[in-house]
């Protein structure tokens, strides 16, 4: 467990560190929850930050924008209104960033929602919740790789379920044969880690972090309960109004702490890329460099308190089966199809 006090020491050192000035961050899924918590810390605790923020509604995000601007008058915060479940829209937003910026330091992706509903394909033919947890996130990462490579300390962070990789069918990554919400969620988790391992090989200067946030009080579970139907609706509502509030009070992490942890992952020397250590905000006393998921592969699988997760047997087996390369090749192909190029 990484103690929150040590994280606060590290984050407080940012403004005086050479790694805490003029950072450019791209935030996707930061209009609420863990992404928003991280964005607020980024705005408040770094010097002259610039953030590009994907939003569904400028109007709904304007109070957040005002709060960010008030927390750091030297910051630049750019809202980009778009429907990110479509890959073509991701490309448009990234093209705009590429036209304006010479480098990007942080890509922080956490969009999504949980739903018991059946498959819900977008007009590009990708299940929307699955796009948000995997295809959209990686399209941002893919598009921004050239700018990440220009940063002195580039970080990619996806908030999902690092450490919970499970067996997946490498011949049916889109789950056409058999779809369920649980299967899709598991696929997204495992695909994320495998894709990170492939990308880290190709981009050794970038640190890739896949984090399971534990239970953060963002309302995500209450919204999931509202997607139940039929006989499950009554127990789901009972859970929502009786047990869930207790979990929120006694067992969950606050959005603020999740955000402090998010900023730490994005800046600390604890998570070096394959290129090596010594880059990022120096470690406070008591902390040491984290162990990555391979031998210096620059991919980190973290739990709620940023503790390194053990490698699951499924992940080992998928590596033996060329899982990282297969997932990445499939992802590139699915994007081409979605964008009408194949
Ligand atoms: N919170 C937890 O306890 C927990 C635990 C395990 C895993 N996770 C995972 O961690 C990630 C972040 O969780 P969170 O609790 O921070 O989530 P959250 O508070 O629900 O925030 C989700 C973000 O995704 C955006 N979003 C939702 N549906 C969208 C759509 N159809 N199109 C575009 N954007 C959409 C939201 O935008 P709007 O503001 O416009 O709605 C918001 O910015 C999720 O993948 C979640 O499943 C969370």
Automatic annotation (TrEMBL):
InterPro entries: NAD(P)-bd_dom_sf, SDR_fam, Sec_Metab_Biosynth_Oxidored. Signal peptide: none annotated. GO terms for molecular function: oxidoreductase activity. It comes from Glarea lozoyensis (strain ATCC 20868 / MF5171). The keyword Oxidoreductase applies. Gene3D superfamilies: NAD(P)-binding Rossmann-like Domain. SUPFAM superfamilies: NAD(P)-binding Rossmann-fold domains (SSF51735). Keywords: Oxidoreductase. This is NAD(P)-binding Rossmann-fold containing protein. The keyword Nucleotide-binding does not apply.
């Amino acid at each position: 467990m990484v103690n929150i006090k040590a994280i606060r020491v590290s984050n407080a050192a940012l403004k005086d560190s050479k790694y805490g000035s003029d950072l450019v961050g791209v935030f996707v899924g930061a209009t609420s929850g863990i992404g928003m918590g991280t964005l607020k810390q980024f705005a408040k605790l770094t010097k002259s930050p610039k953030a590009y923020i994907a939003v569904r509604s400028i109007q709904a995000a304007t109070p957040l924008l005002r709060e960010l601007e008030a927390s750091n008058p030297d910051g630049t915060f750019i809202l980009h209104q778009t429907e990110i479940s479509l890959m073509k829209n991701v490309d448009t937003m990234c093209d705009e960033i590429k036209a304006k910026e010479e480098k990007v330091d942080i890509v922080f992706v956490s969009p999504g929602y949980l739903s018991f509903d059946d498959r819900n394909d977008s007009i590009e033919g990708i299940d929307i919740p699955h796009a948000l947890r995997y295809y959209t996130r990686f399209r941002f990462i893919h598009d921004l790789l050239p700018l990440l490579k220009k940063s002195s300390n580039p970080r990619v962070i996806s908030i999902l379920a690092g450490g919970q990789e499970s067996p997946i069918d490498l011949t049916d990554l889109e789950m056409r044969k058999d779809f369920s919400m649980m299967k899709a969620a598991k696929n997204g988790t495992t695909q994320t880690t495998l894709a990170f391992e492939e990308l880290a090989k190709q981009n050794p200067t970038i640190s890739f972090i896949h984090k399971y946030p534990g239970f953060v009080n963002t309302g995500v579970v209450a919204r999931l309960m509202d997607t139940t139907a039929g006989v499950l609706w009554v127990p789901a509502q009972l859970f929502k109004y009786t047990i869930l509030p207790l979990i929120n009070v006694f067992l969950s992490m606050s959005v603020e702490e999740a955000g402090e942890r998010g900023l730490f992952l994005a800046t600390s020397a604890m998570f070096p890329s394959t290129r090596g250590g010594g880059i990022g905000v120096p470690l406070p006393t008591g902390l040491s460099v984290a162990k990555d998921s391979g031998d210096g592969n620059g991919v980190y699988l973290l739990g709620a308190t940023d503790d390194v997760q053990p490698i699951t047997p499924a992940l080992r087996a998928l590596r033996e089966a060329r899982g990282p390369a297969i997932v990445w090749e499939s992802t590139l192909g699915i994007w081409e199809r979605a964008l009408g190029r194949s």
